[in-house]
């Protein structure tokens, strides 16, 4: 009899020779069936819980990887080069236009500086006193001490200006020192002023021995235009381009689209998505011989939540982009779905990579055309980048009626999509800067705040909330135009993954369900197993007591039988 259940035994054989222990073991084993079933369910639930946790981590990793390409700035890679990087280097963003720019640097921006004459180790021998000087228009007080060294003087300047001026000492190796002061503000008019006393100390008693350099602007010519800036890092003269001026001279700056980098982004997106799909496949097709032998049903292949998640993610990549409108006209988009760029799902039954994405930048996109993804990319790289990573940019189907102004997509108030706005020009107010009026948005009446002076309207609530647009056609009569807020496929995917993996999301709810299935104090498997274990133990104790009593009773009957047999034999012997 299993010691798992009890250490007690019925010591049979002394009287009846009956093996009651085997009878008890068989009965307990039969009664353990329910407990074993519950134990198996616990193993199934624990395994599924671990699988879901692993898939959750995989999806969070997928989301994090996609975030490296979820803006047009990251996806639409541009590269800037300089023919002479020792004159100026170039950094570009996605908004930079391709082209060549001639740059001639004639002066670098610099800070104001003061350099002392050759000084002794002791810089000041006079009595203790406080002097003042100005830097960048602000006055600073400097405490001088008798026999103050050059190093101590520099330290005092740094302390007095709280980092606005940096003073340092150069040991000339001859017993002499130079003290240098440098302001921290680049550009002209950030100078040292009203510092005659300090200048005299630095000049060894004669202010004329102190060298003073005023701050100055950078001066350069860009494409024939003379320009000045307070800094050597210039980012406001050519959209999307930053020129870092290094030295005087001429250089040629070139801005190009980095097509190879964009292709790499597309290929990486496909690769990451296929890795996630492989993860789903592995979980659904997982095999475990040990669990199979135990009869544990661990498969998630038919789990409805898993299937819904997989379907949702696949639908994103197989459908038209949110807010995208196909066509070549005003407010329309050249590419509205990934399939139009050659990114498709392998649908051939029995194919090795069935269900995976495929992409080949050199494959013809249309059977009767020679055009490839690379042709599409070079024709309009911005349209390709927007399909993947658009972050709420807006458009209007008819700018002669409505001009798209802005939205509140970035703060998650405006949902991406297309919004047909209808209004009657005759009902538009002609005065007032904050009129609340009604317009029809996607068939629903919405409150709109309208400025009669600027003609700018903002949808205040409901469908399209946060979209701002300018009313161009104010003539009497009915007018309409469709305003679109675009969201790229990478960003759309990230949003869905966030919802699935967030607290309160699908995975969190599944984990909570599995946890309750196991640990709930009333109906959890652990509680049921405890109750079942107690029942079987109680049964075993009753059986032990019952069969012990039976053994004793049968022993008594056997003794009586033996006595009767003896008496009977004695009587027969006496007759003989």
Structural account:
By secondary structure, the protein is an alpha+beta fold. Helices cover 36% and strands 24% of the residues. The protein has helices at 20-31, 33-66, 72-75, 150-161, 196-202, 259-284, 289-293, 304-318, 373-379, 381-389, 489-501, 506-519, 525-575, and strands at residues 78-82, 88-92, 99-107, 113-115, 122-124, 129-135, 138-144, 148-149, 165-171, 177-183, 192-193, 211-213, 218-222, 225-229, 233-234, 241-245, 249-257, 344-345, 357-358, 391-396, 402-406, 417-424, 435-441, 444-450, 456-459, 468-471, 478-487. It has an 8-stranded antiparallel β-sheet. Helix 2 packs antiparallel against helix 11, helix 2 runs antiparallel to helix 13 and helix 8 (304-318) packs antiparallel against helix 11. Residues 1-7 have low confidence and may be disordered.
Kindly state the number of beta strands: 27
Average per-residue pLDDT, rounded, comes to 90
**Poorly predicted residue ranges:** 1-7
Largest sheet: 8 strands, antiparallel
Termini Cα gap: 51 Å
Q: How would you write the strand order of the largest sheet?
A: 20-27-22-23-24-25-26-21
Compact description:
By secondary structure, this protein is of the alpha+beta class. The chain has helices at 20-31, 33-66, 72-75, 150-161, 196-202, 259-284, 289-293, 304-318, 373-379, 381-389, 489-501, 506-519, 525-575; strands at 78-82, 88-92, 99-107, 113-115, 122-124, 129-135, 138-144, 148-149, 165-171, 177-183, 192-193, 211-213, 218-222, 225-229, 233-234, 241-245, 249-257, 344-345, 357-358, 391-396, 402-406, 417-424, 435-441, 444-450, 456-459, 468-471, 478-487.
């Amino acid at each position: 009899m299993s010691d798992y259940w009890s250490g007690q035994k019925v010591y049979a054989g002394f009287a009846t020779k009956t093996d009651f222990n085997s009878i008890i073991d068989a009965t307990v084993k039969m009664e353990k069936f329910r407990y074993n079933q519950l134990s198996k369910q616990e193993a199934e639930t624990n395994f599924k819980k671990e699988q879901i946790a692993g898939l959750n981590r995989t999806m969070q990793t997928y989301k994090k990887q996609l975030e490296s390409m979820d803006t047009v700035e990251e996806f639409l890679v541009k590269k800037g080069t300089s023919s002479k990087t020792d004159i100026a280097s170039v950094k570009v963003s996605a908004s930079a236009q391709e082209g060549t720019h001639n740059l001639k640097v004639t002066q670098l921006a610099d800070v104001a500086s003061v350099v002392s004459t050759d000084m002794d180790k002791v810089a000041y021998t006079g009595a203790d006193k406080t002097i003042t000087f100005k830097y960048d228009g602000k006055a600073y007080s400097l405490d001088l001490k008798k026999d103050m060294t050059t190093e101590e003087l520099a330290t005092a300047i740094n302390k007095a200006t709280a980092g606005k001026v940096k003073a340092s000492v150069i040991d000339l190796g001859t017993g002499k020192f130079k003290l240098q002061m440098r302001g921290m503000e680049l550009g002209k008019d950030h100078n040292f002023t009203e510092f005659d006393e300090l200048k005299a100390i630095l000049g060894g008693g004669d202010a004329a021995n102190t060298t003073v350099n005023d701050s100055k602007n950078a001066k350069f010519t860009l494409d024939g235009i003379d320009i000045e800036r307070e800094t050597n890092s210039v980012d406001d003269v050519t959209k999307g381009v930053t020129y870092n001026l290094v030295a005087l001279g001429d250089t040629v700056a070139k801005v190009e689209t980095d097509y190879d980098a964009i292709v790499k982004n597309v290929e990486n997106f496909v690769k990451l998505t296929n890795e996630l799909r492989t993860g789903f496949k592995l979980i659904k097709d997982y095999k475990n011989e040990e669990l199979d032998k135990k009869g544990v049903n661990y498969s998630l292949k038919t789990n409805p939540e898993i299937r819904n998640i997989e379907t949702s993610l696949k639908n994103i990549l197989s459908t038209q982009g949110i807010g995208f409108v196909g066509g070549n006209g005003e407010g329309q988009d050249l590419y509205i779905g990934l399939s139009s760029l050659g990114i498709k799902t392998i649908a051939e039954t029995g194919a090795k990579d069935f269900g995976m994405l495929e992409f080949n930048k050199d494959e013809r996109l249309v059977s009767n055309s020679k055009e490839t993804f690379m042709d599409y990319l070079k024709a309009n790289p911005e349209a390709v980048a927007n399909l993947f990573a658009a972050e709420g940019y807006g458009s209007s189907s008819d700018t002669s009626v409505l001009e798209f102004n802005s939205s509140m997509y970035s703060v998650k108030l405006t949902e991406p999509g297309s919004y047909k706005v209808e209004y009657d020009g005759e009902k538009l107010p002609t005065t007032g800067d904050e009129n609340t009026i009604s317009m029809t948005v996607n068939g629903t009446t919405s409150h709109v705040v309208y400025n009669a002076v600027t003609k700018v309207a903002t949808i205040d609530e409901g469908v399209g909330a946060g979209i701002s647009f300018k009313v161009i056609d104010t003539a009497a009569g009915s007018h309409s135009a469709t305003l679109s807020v675009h969201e790229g496929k990478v960003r759309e995917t990230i949003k869905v993954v966030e919802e699935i993996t967030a607290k309160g999301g699908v995975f969190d709810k599944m984990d909570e369900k599995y946890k309750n299935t196991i640990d709930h104090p009333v109906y959890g498997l652990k509680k049921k197993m405890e109750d079942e274990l107690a029942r079987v133990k109680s049964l075993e104790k009753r059986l032990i007591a019952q069969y012990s009593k039976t053994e004793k009773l049968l022993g008594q009957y056997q003794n009586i039988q033996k006595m009767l047999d003896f008496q009977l034999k004695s009587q027969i012997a006496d007759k003989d």
